[in-house]
UniProtKB/TrEMBL annotation:
GO cellular component, one term: plasma membrane
Transmembrane segments: 27-44, 50-69, 100-119, 124-141, 170-189, 226-249, 261-286, 298-325
Alphabetically ordered keywords of this record: Cell membrane, Membrane, Transmembrane, Transmembrane helix
MF GO annotations: branched-chain amino acid transmembrane transporter activity
Record protein name field: Branched-chain amino acid ABC transporter permease
Membrane topology: Multi-pass membrane protein
Signal peptide: none
Subcellular location: Cell membrane
Organism listed in the record: Neoaquamicrobium microcysteis
Amino acid sequence: MSDVTANAPFDAQGWLRRQSRWSPLEVVFWLALLLPFFFFPTYLTLASQIAIAALFAISVDLILGYAGIVTLGHAMFFGLGAYAAGLISVYGWGEPLSGLLLAAAFAGLVGFVVSFMIVRVQHLALIMITLGLGLLTYELANSMSWLTGGTDGLRGIRTWPIFNYFRFDLWGYTAYSYSLAALFVCFLVSRRIVNSSFGLALRGVRENVRRMPAIGSDYRGHLQKIYTISAAIAGLAGALMAQTTNVVALDALSFQRSADVVVMLILGGTGRLYGAIVGAAIFLIARDQLSGVNPQYWYFWIGLLLMVVVLVMPKGILGGLSALASRWSGR
């Protein structure tokens, strides 16, 4: 009987159906994200920034955690989305939802073009290319100060009320509602992607890219698709930042932003969409608190936290908690 079970084919469709089901813990998690409205109203601006950072982290997790594409320049798409949404507003169209979609489409288009280069290299060359593209975009935006505002940032952004009714207030109620709604919608899309046959193919590419062509998989096509989707989501996150703050600084394209999002994923756990959200929350809350204690050296404590997490829980906080839960249940 055990031999029959061992030789039975893997039921991929059944596994995907089980993965797609919502657990009670997930429902509680999303309901908990509404708590800032009631218990932490003075931190709603920070909460909206966490939601935007989490969305950006999800975009990177799709390519890093699921497809194995290592990147150090994904802020390029975040910044392109931010500048696209900002420029649309500056030149007379401040409707937020259409601006959001146009910015995401623009970033996705650039991501599609870049993907032809990305799928042809691996490992160190891939890191260098993504880093180089990010630095080139940063310097291009800096040199085009007549358009982007350069180091002074893009000013004059005016975002209209959502549905011509919900105005962006100083307390952050509308900003957090808007950012959280965008995060939830993009999370649903990302969750559907990773829990599909396409998501399984991406995992196969991540585990062994050389074996995928042997089973007839167009691995380059898969990588191009997910890279384009990831770029669009990153651009949408950047557009959210521009619309909720009414300013786009040059650091939206900086290497620091690309590095920070990788740190968020390491903290939360790669290959877990919830890890991106948890990692973003931990990183930004820690930055907010530590910079208040020591504005100059707060990165020291972030580095220490990162080292502790990597040494104690190499798969991130959610990975470590999952391992503990499996050990506790005896599986």
